[in-house]
Amino acid sequence: MSTLITNISELMTQDLEHRVLADAAVVIEGERIAWLGAAASAPAADTVVDAGGRAVLPGWVDSHTHLVFAGDRTAEFEARMAGEAYAAGGIAVTVDATRRTSDFDLTRLAMARVSEAVSQGTTYLETKTGYGLDVEHEARSARIASTLADEVTFLGAHLVPAGSDAADYTDLVCGPMLEAVRPYARWADVFCEEGAFTAAQSRRVLEACREAGLGIRVHGNQLGPGPGVQLAVDLGAASVDHVNYLSADDVAALAESWSGWNAAAGTGRRGTVATCLPACDLSTRAPLAPGRELLDAGVQVALASNCNPGTSYTSSMAFCVATAVLQMGLTVHEAVRAATYGGALALHREAGDDADGGRAVGSLAVGHRADLHMLNAPSATHLAYRPGMPLTYAVWREGVRAR
To answer: Cβ distance 121 to 336 under 8 Å?
Structure first.
């Protein structure tokens, strides 16, 4: 079954050529993009969808979320809005609630959050464990996450539970917990911050997870200057996320990590993606990550929602894009690219086509996964021009219309 989507006012491909096509069309066959180009040259298809002069872009790739949780932290939010500083310890509140919640209810809650994200144009998403913090509950979170997310990240090193010895807990994360979670996860992460895990503890966790076959990523430089970025680059992490407090050396290290990458061809040695989380920055009243500086230095940047109950309870990637444009100095094209191709790059899912059977996400090209986001607007500029407006008109995920 093939579907022709035609009368597209603006098709923002976010492919390697950065094409933006006017008066365009796309043909979907199964889960793949079979053709795209000028509407006047479009081939026949089994069904036709008239876009009505609307814009189409790749579905959002949200490369950083925490969706498997229970409980509520509005009191913590209100306290921050009243002037209290954010501290990592609030995670414990969610851990208590999550442990008390049944598998059925935890799955139901997470599925609802995924549905919310898809309804707003997210077609590929990662989510983490990290609200179990013991072997049983981390394994349970990973198992549930594997049934509803595209990518699962093991974040047992989210916080040292109250009453636990940090060294003993690190041993647990690197041993029995990792073994229990490994069947369900592709990635591992660590919260390398004051009040969470030290550089030495973080390195040990990441090295153990890498040896077990997981890809690695880092929460770093969120609460203040710290070792997270340097650690991520040194270990070849796929991404370092938050990046609010960066020194000149941090930016230089991130840029150098991409020196072997051919951006025009999408080939070479990947570096460490800097993932900016602007919704979290606003909620914690932190300085916005320096996305403009990072891009100008040659760093590959991603935008993600960081949807979680404590510091960023939103899955709206459009909100993140608008914030990146209005407050971080990115252009609309740069912000959309960071929220699509950038997220795919952070998850090592930016490449692949019919030749190898692994379909790329985050960009629109023949052979890539048919993940499309149609806006109720003539161009993607409206995402920032009309911030906060519900602009998602239609969504296709793996070639199936999801909205």
So the answer is: no
The pair phi, psi for residue 160, each rounded to 5°, is -80, 120
Which helix (H) or strand (E) segment is 362 a member of?
none
> What are the CA-CA distances from residue 294 to residues 275, 283, 321 (Å)?
10, 22, 16
Torsion of CA 315, 321, 326, 329, to 10 degrees: 130
Dist CA 228 CA 222 (whole Å) = 9
The whole-angstrom distance between residue 329's C-alpha and the CA centroid of its chain comes to 20
Give ∠ CA 283-96-170 in degrees, rounded to 5. 90
Distance CA 207, CA 169 (A): 16
Among candidates 194, 287, 292, which has minimal Cα distance to 251? Answer: 292
Instruction: Quote the distance between the C-alpha of residue 265 and its chain's center.
Output: 23
Name the CA dihedral angle for 312, 191, 324, 280, rounded to a multiple of 10 degrees.
20
Rounded to whole angstroms, the Cα distance separating 196 from 166 reads: 9
C-beta separation of 300 from 339 below 8 A: no
Spatial CA neighbour of 381 closest among 339, 325, 327, 328: 325
Q: What's the CA gap between 307 and 241, in Å, rounded?
A: 13
Report the DSSP pairing between strands 301-303 and 273-276: parallel
Q: Where are the extended beta strands (E) located within 13-146?
A: 20-29, 32-38, 47-50, 55-58, 60-62, 122-128
Q: Is there a contact between 8 and 55 (Cβ–Cβ < 8 Å)?
A: yes
- Predicted TM-score of the model (pTM): 0.97
For the packed helices 228-235 and 199-211, what is the interaxial angle rounded to 10 degrees? 30
Q: Which one has a higher pLDDT value, 354 or 298?
A: 298
- Could you read off the pLDDT of 321-347 as tens digits, one per residue? 999 999 999 999 999 999 999 999 999
Average pLDDT over residues 55-76: 97
* Ramachandran angles phi, psi of 351, nearest 5°: -120, 165
Q: What is the rounded distance in angstroms from the CA atom of residue 142 to the CA atom of residue 81?
A: 32
CA 364 to chain centre: 18
